[in-house]
Amino acid sequence: MPVYISKEGLEELRREHLQRTRETRKEIAEAISSAKELGDLSENFEYQDAKEQQALNEARILQVEAMIHQAVIVEETSGGMQIELGCTFVAQVNGGEKTFSLVGSMEADPLTGKISNESPLGRALIGRAKDDVVSVPVPNGIMEYTILEIK
Q1: CA–CA gap between residue 42 and residue 33 (Å, rounded)
Q2: Shortest CA distance to 121 belongs to which of 106, 102, 140, 107?
Q3: Cα within 13 Å of Cα(124), Cβ side
Q4: Strands 88-93 and 141-150: what pairing?
Q5: β 133-138/141-150 pair status
Q6: What contacts 146, CB < 8 A, 6 or more positions away?
């Protein structure tokens, strides 16, 4: 399954991968070594904690590697006639205007207006054009978005 991500997001994943494989692994290995010196491993909290941190780190490394291999770069688009992945648009919602960007799920941040293409809202907006009214079911009922501008 492709991971839609910006160039900056992919670079951030690569930085995280490097940090986890070079620095975090080394720090955890040192913590395990120090904890082993404390004696009985079956009742050694420091050892158990370090081993748990090691497992979490290795799981995240595998996850990041998979995302990097499945990455599909999304270029920011402008001047389009309809909403698509990578574009920014303005919509009227709740009586006010808000600016949104349609991004891959990895970079979604609803609080800053970055909507995932996989979210119900993102799926409802893809392919819509200026002046379209989009109704999206929300827990309290229906939310309407009127597309004012596609940047």
Answers
A1: 15
A2: 102
A3: 17
A4: antiparallel
A5: antiparallel
A6: 91, 92, 93, 131, 132, 133, 134
Tell me if 133 sits within 8 A of 31, measured CB to CB: no
Cβ within 8 Å of residue 38, ≥6 positions away: 44, 46, 47
Q: Which residue has the tokens 């309290």?
A: 140
Q: What is the DSSP letter of 22?
A: I
Q: Is the pTM of this model over 0.90?
A: no
Rg of the chain over Cα atoms, rounded to whole angstroms, equals 22
Q: Which SS3 state, helix, strand or coil, does residue 33 take?
A: helix
Per DSSP, what are the bridge partners of residue 90? Answer: 99, 149
Backbone dihedral angles phi then psi of residue 132, each to the nearest 5 degrees? -70, 145
For residue 93, the cross-strand partners are: 96
The tokens for 84 are: 């698509």
Taking only the tens place, the pLDDT of each residue in 105-146 is 889 999 999 999 999 999 999 999 999 999 999 888 899 999
Contact 149, 80 (CB under 8 A): no
At 37, give phi and psi (nearest 5°): -70, -15
- Is 68:17 a contact under the CB 8 Å cutoff? yes
CA gap 16, 8 in Å, rounded: 12
